[in-house]
Design brief:
With 462 residues, the chain is mostly helical. 65% of the residues lie in helices and 3% in strands. It has one domain (22-461). The protein has a two-stranded antiparallel ribbon with strand order 1-2.
Length: 462
């Protein structure tokens, strides 16, 4: 496994020797992030990651064929174990665990193939982003793209609030056959809409989803991207950018509360506490005062406005608690039945949590046939890919947190905070596709920080 490259190549300096320098252009990564609202409107959305993985893989292979070394991220063996577990677990697609709807393996293959393609596409993104040099794509610019996507997330939240029923037929959707584009799964990929309409606190209300497809994904990405807006604004050195960032964070409180997303609220708490702990350990005790003031402002904003009633109503109405507990039990039962490699994918339960005779109908789409593994990345890993896949997935990001634990730079703290929040989010959110994309980009930034720091130290010692 090649894990190193010449110092001059990694830092973007002049190359030595007779080999031709093959640069990696920034446009595949920049194009995904900077233009994501466009991809969403066109109906590409998460599909853009698979589309862009093709030129990224070609460019990586071209560089390798030219004799230039390519780095793999530290701990890549864990990720390789995860990918292998996915492939091996496909062999169990034909199994019908007790209490699940029987189906032929062929019928389950399209969804599993989609997930495998996306996991591979994000693997390419990880390697590509990690091999980009400062000259090709400065880390500060990548941080700006991620901060920009937080702004997009907040804007999408407000769109979902004021125009919850807004939706339209995308160009990609128009090109699909009628029988294909009307399928629920396909709709979630190519049909742009502002919010999911749900009855959680009495009466159907819109919950922000744009441009991420699902309210839970919106909340997950909110936590993963918030830190990057702060880093981008403060690294710019401009007071105007800092003020705008603070205003955006303050404004984001409104859609975050209205989303009724308890997982998001917990994730924000984890994010703030982790960052505060890192700064305190670094001797910057002033962060405690900042967190206290911010907490007081948030408390006043919630209590003194109608947002307080929204929070109270959500806490008093835990309609999803029973379903989540039911699905966790089913996932753990399934794990016990196939503990090593799982079942290759999710399964639908027979009936609901109270009766096997309850199922989906035109009048009640959420009455039963719940998806085992659809209520959190951890439960999906255990159920679909067993201990091998779970160990590989958790081991990779856990190794990264440990390996880069001494990175006290603003980028290092923000990236590790994003990974820490992802560990809490996996209890109730699924990570594929965009949340995992932002996780691997956070890993890539930590990796590039370490690589460039080692290069500078090597140059000094030389």
């Amino acid at each position: 496994m090649t894990l190193a490259a010449p110092a001059s190549e990694r830092t973007g300096g002049p190359a030595h020797g007779a080999r031709k320098t093959i640069t990696l252009p920034a446009w595949p990564v920049a194009g995904i992030l900077a233009l994501y609202p466009l991809w969403w409107a066109l109906g590409l959305g998460v599909l853009i990651f698979a589309v862009m993985a093709v030129p990224m893989l070609f460019l990586l292979l071209r560089r390798r064929a030219a004799g230039r070394t390519l780095m793999l991220p530290p701990g890549f063996g864990w990720w390789a174990l995860f990918l292998i577990a996915i492939v091996v677990s496909i062999g169990a697609l034909g199994a019908d665990p007790a209490g699940t709807v029987p189906e032929h393996a062929v019928g389950r293959l399209p969804a599993v193939t989609y997930k495998l393609v996306m996991y591979l596409a994000l693997t390419v993104l990880l390697v590509y982003a990690g091999n980009l040099t400062e000259r090709e794509l400065p880390k500060k610019r990548l941080v700006k793209y991620l901060g920009w996507l937080f702004v997009v997330t907040v804007a999408g939240g407000f769109l979902g609030m004021v125009a919850g029923h807004f939706e339209f037929t995308s160009p990609v959707e128009m090109l699909l056959p009628h029988g294909v584009r009307n399928k629920g799964f396909v709709q979630s990929l190519v049909h742009p809409y502002a919010a999911q309409i749900m009855d959680l606190v009495g009466g159907e209300k819109p919950r922000p989803a744009a441009p991420w497809g699902y309210t839970n994904t919106w909340g997950n990405n909110f936590c993963l991207l918030a830190g990057w807006l702060v880093v981008a604004a403060w690294q710019s050195g401009r007071g105007r950018n800092k003020v705008l960032a603070v205003l955006c964070l303050l404004a984001s409180i409104v859609p975050a509360v209205v989303s009724l997303n308890r997982g998001l609220w917990i994730g924000i708490g984890v994010l703030v506490l982790y960052v505060a702990a890192r700064y305190v350990l670094a001797g910057k005790v002033w962060i405690v005062g900042v967190v206290a003031v911010a907490g007081a402002m948030l408390f006043v904003a919630v209590v003194a406005t109608p947002l307080g009633g929204v929070v109270s109503a959500r806490m008093d109405n835990g309609k999803s608690n029973g379903v989540r507990s039911f699905l966790i039990d089913r996932a753990l039962d399934g794990f016990a039945g196939s503990p090593v490699v799982g079942y290759g994918g999710t399964r639908n339960t027979v009936g609901g949590r109270n009766s096997i005779t309850v199922g989906e109908s035109a009048g009640c789409e959420r009455c039963g046939n719940f998806t085992v593994g659809g209520n959190g990345q951890l439960w999906q890993l255990l159920y679909a890919h067993g201990a091998a896949g779970t160990l590989g997935y958790l081991g990779f990001f856990g190794y990264g947190l440990w390996r880069f634990r001494r990175d006290r730079s603003a980028i290092g703290v923000a990236a590790s905070a994003a990974l820490v929040t992802s560990y809490s989010a996996m209890l109730w959110y699924n990570a594929l596709v965009t949340p995992l994309a932002f996780m691997v980009l956070a890993f890539a930034l930590l990796w590039r920080n370490a690589t460039e720091r080692n290069s500078l130290e090597g140059d000094k010692s030389g």
